[in-house]
Model the fold of this input.
Amino acid sequence: MSNVSEYIKESYVELTEKVTWPTWRELQSSSILVLIAALIIALIILFMDQSIHFLLTQFYSSLT
Done:
């Protein structure tokens, strides 16, 4: 049980004294960057999905 309490104490010390937390401004900048990246990736996936849909539709309509 002493190992668990020692782990919790060391974790607390590390989180309060050794970790560098971002400022509010840095957090906002990072969040905006992640949002833009997610939108770009979503648009790329949408383009790929629509392209494959179009190609498969053309392929299957040519079979009949």
Observations:
- The two ends are 72 Å apart (CA to CA).
- The CA atoms of residues 33 and 60 lie 41 Å apart.
